[in-house]
Amino acid sequence: EDKVVQSPLSLVVHEGDTVTLNCSYEVTNFRSLLWYKQEKKAPTFLFMLTSSGIEKKSGRLSSILDKKELFSILNITATQTGDSAVYLCAVWQGAEKLVFGQGTRLTINP
Amino acid sequence: GAGVSQSPRYKVTKRGQDVALRCDPISGHVSLYWYRQALGQGPEFLTYFNYEAQQDKSGLPNDRFSAERPEGSISTLTIQRTEQRDSAMYRCASSLAPQSTDTQYFGPGTRLTVL
Q: Does position A41 have pLDDT exceeding 70, yes or no?
C-alpha cells in the first residue's frame, strides 16, 4: 500500500532555531515529492523534488530528496513566528495520484 | 467513469472572454480540489469542496475566479474577463474522504491559453 509518513507530527521550538522536518515514502511508480505549507486551509506549494541529492532552496527554507533511502527533509533556518504552520509532504505517484503525509504541525514561540 | 475527467482538455480564448472549466470527479468522492499548475511546478491549490460546500477559496487569485459544485458532484471553475496571465494548466482532483491529506486523484487537466 502506498504511504507517506512524516515526522515529527508536532514540533515546538523557539524563534531563531533551525528545524528539520522528515518525510519518508513507499509508493510505486514514484514521480516526484512535493512540500506544502498550510497555515489556514489552502496549502501553499513550496518545493517539488524529482532528482536525488539536488537541494532546492527558497530563502530560509531548503529541501532535498534521497530516492535511494526514500525520504526527503525540509529545513527551516532562523525560524520566525510566521513559519508556524502545518507542513505537508506529498508524493506524486504516476500521473494522477498524489499521496499526502499526515503533516507536521510546527509552532514557533517568540 | 473510472477516473477524474475534465473538459475541455484544451481551451484557447481571447482576452476578456469568460471561460468555464468542468470537472467530473470519481463517483462517490466527497472532496474535490481545483489547482493551477505551471510547467515544472507542483499543483497550486485554488479552492476545494466537501460535498457541495466550498471549504476555502483563499487560493483563488482574484475575484474573477469562482467555482461551484451545486450537487456535490460535478464542479465548474469559471474565470471571468480572462487575462493572458490566466494561461496555465488547470487541474482537478478528488478524494474519497473530506481530509486535505487524503490521497487525491487527478484529472488530465485543461490547458487554458488566453490570447
A: no
